[in-house]
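Students often ask why inverse folding is considered easier than folding. One informal answer: many sequences map to the same fold, so there is more than one right answer. In these notes we will look at a single instance of the problem. The structure comes first.
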Protein backbone atom coordinates (compact mmCIF):
# COMPACT_ATOMS: atom_id res chain seq x y z
CA UNK A 1 0.00 0.00 0.00
CA UNK A 2 1.36 3.39 -0.99
CA UNK A 3 2.03 5.81 1.86
CA UNK A 4 -0.47 8.35 0.46
CA UNK A 5 -3.33 5.84 -0.02
CA UNK A 6 -6.29 6.18 2.38
CA UNK A 7 -8.52 3.42 3.80
CA UNK A 8 -11.37 4.74 5.93
CA UNK A 9 -14.25 2.97 7.67
CA UNK A 10 -15.27 -0.67 7.23
CA UNK A 11 -12.83 -1.61 4.46
CA UNK A 12 -11.74 -5.24 4.05
CA UNK A 13 -8.95 -6.06 1.59
CA UNK A 14 -7.78 -9.45 0.33
CA UNK A 15 -4.25 -10.79 0.14
CA UNK A 16 -1.90 -9.45 -2.51
CA UNK A 17 -3.50 -6.01 -2.58
CA UNK A 18 -1.84 -3.09 -4.30
CA UNK A 19 -3.28 0.33 -3.62
CA UNK A 20 -1.26 3.01 -5.38
CA UNK A 21 -0.53 6.66 -4.59
CA UNK A 22 -3.45 8.90 -3.74
CA UNK A 23 -6.13 6.18 -3.94
CA UNK A 24 -9.03 6.40 -1.46
CA UNK A 25 -11.13 3.45 -0.27
CA UNK A 26 -13.88 4.59 2.06
CA UNK A 27 -17.04 3.25 3.67
CA UNK A 28 -19.35 6.17 4.51
CA UNK A 29 -22.29 5.99 6.92
CA UNK A 30 -23.70 3.42 9.33
CA UNK A 31 -23.45 -0.13 8.01
CA UNK A 32 -21.35 0.91 4.99
CA UNK A 33 -18.73 -1.48 3.67
CA UNK A 34 -16.06 -1.91 1.03
CA UNK A 35 -14.89 -5.47 0.30
CA UNK A 36 -11.97 -6.10 -2.02
CA UNK A 37 -10.91 -9.57 -3.19
CA UNK A 38 -7.39 -10.97 -3.42
CA UNK A 39 -4.71 -9.90 -5.90
CA UNK A 40 -6.27 -6.62 -6.97
CA UNK A 41 -4.76 -3.31 -8.06
CA UNK A 42 -6.26 0.10 -7.39
CA UNK A 43 -4.28 2.62 -9.42
CA UNK A 44 -3.32 6.23 -8.68
CA UNK A 45 -6.01 8.62 -7.39
CA UNK A 46 -8.91 6.18 -7.78
CA UNK A 47 -11.81 6.64 -5.34
CA UNK A 48 -13.84 3.61 -4.19
CA UNK A 49 -16.80 4.34 -1.92
CA UNK A 50 -19.40 2.18 -0.24
CA UNK A 51 -22.34 3.89 1.46
CA UNK A 52 -24.54 2.86 4.35
CA UNK A 53 -27.68 4.07 6.03
CA UNK A 54 -31.28 3.22 5.28
CA UNK A 55 -30.46 2.12 1.71
CA UNK A 56 -26.88 0.83 1.79
CA UNK A 57 -24.84 0.52 -1.38
CA UNK A 58 -21.73 -1.56 -0.57
CA UNK A 59 -18.78 -1.61 -2.93
CA UNK A 60 -17.60 -5.16 -3.63
CA UNK A 61 -14.74 -6.09 -5.96
CA UNK A 62 -13.92 -9.70 -6.82
CA UNK A 63 -10.44 -11.16 -6.90
CA UNK A 64 -7.91 -10.10 -9.55
CA UNK A 65 -9.61 -6.78 -10.35
CA UNK A 66 -7.79 -3.80 -11.83
CA UNK A 67 -9.22 -0.33 -11.12
CA UNK A 68 -7.67 2.28 -13.42
CA UNK A 69 -6.18 5.65 -12.47
CA UNK A 70 -8.65 8.41 -11.52
CA UNK A 71 -11.59 5.96 -11.56
CA UNK A 72 -14.54 6.72 -9.26
CA UNK A 73 -16.66 3.76 -8.14
CA UNK A 74 -19.57 4.09 -5.72
CA UNK A 75 -21.82 1.33 -4.40
CA UNK A 76 -21.22 -1.27 -7.10
CA UNK A 77 -20.17 -4.89 -7.58
CA UNK A 78 -17.40 -5.99 -9.95
CA UNK A 79 -16.88 -9.71 -10.67
CA UNK A 80 -13.70 -11.81 -10.63
CA UNK A 81 -10.66 -12.24 -12.86
CA UNK A 82 -9.10 -9.80 -15.19
CA UNK A 83 -6.83 -11.55 -17.64
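Output (designed amino acids):
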Amino acid sequence: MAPTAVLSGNVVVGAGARVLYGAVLTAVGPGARVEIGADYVVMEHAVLRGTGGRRPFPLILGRRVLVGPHAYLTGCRVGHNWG
